[in-house]
Amino acid sequence: MPMTLTQQTAPYAHWEYVHPETGDRLRIIPERGGIVSEWRCGEREVLYFDQERYADPAKSIRGGIPVLFPICGNLPGDLLQVKGVDHTLKQHGFARNLPWQLQLLDDQSGVRLSLSSTDDTLAAYPFVFVVEMEVRPVAMALEISTTIHNRSDQPMPFSFGLHPYFNVSDLAQTRLTGLAERCMNHLEMADAATDEQLSRLPEGVDFLCRPAGDVTLIDDVSGAQLQLQHQEPMDLTVVWTEPPRKMVCLEPWTGPRQSLVSGDRKLVLEPGTQQTVACRYAVS
User: Which example biological process does GO assign this protein (predicted)?
Assistant: First the structure.
């Protein structure tokens, strides 16, 4: 059995985690947003990852599991006002662009990625924080549990989400079940019928559904299924496609776009407290 966590150089620089019992594999790039770039479960590569685009550091990453913090989506004018002062906070926050720390969990069941506030983050988001994300491949599933700590002396508002990209054979032969009947179409910022949005996966969609239970992504070509098993409060679901890429983003968020401004599902941590949010992806 190979070493549990090793540094690799090919096909790109990353850390490789191999589960000591199942042999399931993760690839992690802590320097680039703490991103998990591969999840191999059995013989199946579950995550989509555009290596060619990744090789150009000037471009945003398309693939893996980007982390959204301290906001999901965008704010009006990219501005967050705290105590009357405007702070520039770009779409989806800064966590996906910063270097994270990586370590093996004590029981070797997975890895812990951690991100702490810096002078740069304080300029955009004036709160002292620590984010600790534990990623565990279990039997036929991936569990992700994230604890956000407020180390500030004032209440800290935030949203948290994940933006995973999943491989599919053909967008025209891909289905999603378990979503709420109505959704928010992000492309028009308007209420829409979810079934209508799902019929347009091959054309490109971006929509958010309120909690309605677990959501299953079904690949009718391969027969593969992937189920997002939510845990409150990270139980909003965003679906995003970007044709011609053969992938679907199935994203758990705690709050919708502009949550920190509207107050809609805004999470607030009191000084010295913490909150854990979690989700699970099961394959079959």
Answer: carbohydrate metabolic process
How far apart CA 269 and CA 151 sit, in angstroms, is 10
Residue spans of the domains in the chain: they are 5-283
Question: Is the Cα torsion angle 27, 28, 29, 32 positive or negative in sign?
Answer: positive
Q: Is the dihedral of CA 279, 280, 281, 284 positive or negative?
A: negative
Report the amino acid identity of residue 225: Q
The Cα angle at residue 134 between residues 131 and 137, in degrees rounded to 5: 155
Burial 40-56 (b: 16+ CB within 10 A, else e): bbeeeebbbbbeeebee
For strands 141-150 and 225-230, give the pairing. unpaired
The CATH classification number of 5-283 equals 2.70.98.10
Token digits of residue 102: 């990586």
Measured CA to CA in angstroms, residue 101 lies from 20, 87, 197, 275, 284 at distances of 22, 26, 38, 20, 32
Q: What is the pLDDT of residues 13-38, one digit of tens each?
A: 999 999 999 999 999 999 999 999 99
pLDDT in tens, 78-123: 999 999 999 999 999 999 999 999 999 999 999 999 999 999 999 9
SS (H, E, C) 4-37: CEEEECCCCCEEEEECCCCCCEEEEECCCCCEEE
157-205: pLDDT as tens digits? 999 999 999 999 999 999 999 999 999 999 999 999 999 999 999 999 9
pTM above 0.85, yes or no: yes
What pLDDT sits at residue 217? 98
Pairing status of strand 182-185 against strand 5-8: unpaired
Rounded to whole angstroms, the Cα distance separating 47 from 63 reads 7
Q: CB–CB of 127/154 below 8 Å?
A: yes
DSSP 61: P
